[in-house]
Amino acid sequence: MAGLQELQFPEEKPLLRGQDATELENSDPFLLAVDTDWKEHDIETPYGLLHVVIRGPPKGNRPAILTYHDVGLNHKLCFNTFFNFEDMQEITKHFVVCHVDAPGQQVGASQFPQGYQFPSMEQLAAMLPSVVQHFGFKYVIGIGVGAGAYVLAKFALIFPDLVEGLVLMNIDPNGKGWIDWAATKLSGLTSTLPDTVLSHLFSQEELMNNSELVQSYRQQIGNVVNQANLQLFWNMYNSRRDLDINRPGTVPNAKTLRCPVMLVVGDNAPAEDGVVDCNSKLDPTTTTFLKMADSGGLPQVTQPGKLTEAFKYFLQGMGYIAYLKDRRLSGGAVPSASMTRLARSRTASLTSASSVDGSRPQACTHSESSEGLGQVNHTMEVSC
Length: 384
Hints:
Layout: E1 13-14, H1 21-25, E2 39-45, E3 48-55, E4 64-68, H2 75-83, H3 86-92, E5 97-101, H4 121-135, E6 140-145, H5 147-158, E7 163-169, H6 178-190, H7 193-201, H8 204-209, H9 212-223, H10 227-238, E8 261-266, H11 272-280, E9 287-292, H12 299-302, H13 304-317, E10 323-325, E11 333-335, H14 341-345, E12 378-382
Parallel strand pairs: 4-5, 4-6, 6-7, 7-8, 8-9, 9-12
Antiparallel strand pairs: 1-2, 2-3, 3-5, 10-11
């Protein structure tokens, strides 16, 4: 048990496979789209155009799932493996899915002109209400990774009524100090941009192992993402300020995320310390901390099955998806409370509630408290 305490916008055009020459030249299983019903949009916002890819119309009163990728990536490189996972598609058929690409980071993006001022992290967050308004979403469930997680957290702090829940992977709520800033500058002088970004995405162990995954991402980051645009995004992310959040009751008038949050990090990820720190600053009664065993810097790529199952429990805890089909059982649809690998691996699952389209459900998060842990704190260690 002691170990558990340590856990921690308006032209529409179909996005067809193979339509982009650059994508074909750099084809990779996690980059190619499986569906042909995704549509691209360019949304006008107060801080410039935002490239968005969306599938499906709004589903009644349900929120949209809105994603934001990490620096060095785009929605394809970051999320295709996860959203193309078969069990995940059983979930997403109940929701409209909206992928947001940070300015200039999408496949085939034109290079920004000289002197272009890349939006600050706060301005990136302030661009998102334009997306919500354009599509008529009432609110969203955000899934962000790294820099994208920071943007979505900032979005939820500024526009809390638009956010129903957040899944934040590899989030670092802290700005860089002078030492870290200098180290980043030095690294930029001695390493190529893709290699510098790789050290943000992957742990040293993963980089040293020089795996096929790391090599594939090195190639894709260098060939698919416009390097000048990426440099601007990278510089802005590294000049971010601390997220102004504190656990309720720790300081007067503490600001915090008001929606249910699931924090996710691999047990071999460079962002582990940042995620642990973020967990300490959030309300433990509405926060789930998922530390994934046998996972590195990109758990949505290396462990999509485990992450899908955790996301299912997270949605059920907010009152969505009363049951899902489980392909592993011959009985077809099974109750959401059925015992799964995640539930067996502890420490807690979120309670399931009936899914309704007529009214916005009340968020209801719950976890079993483990003996000796004291205050309830949602922690899941997925080691199976």
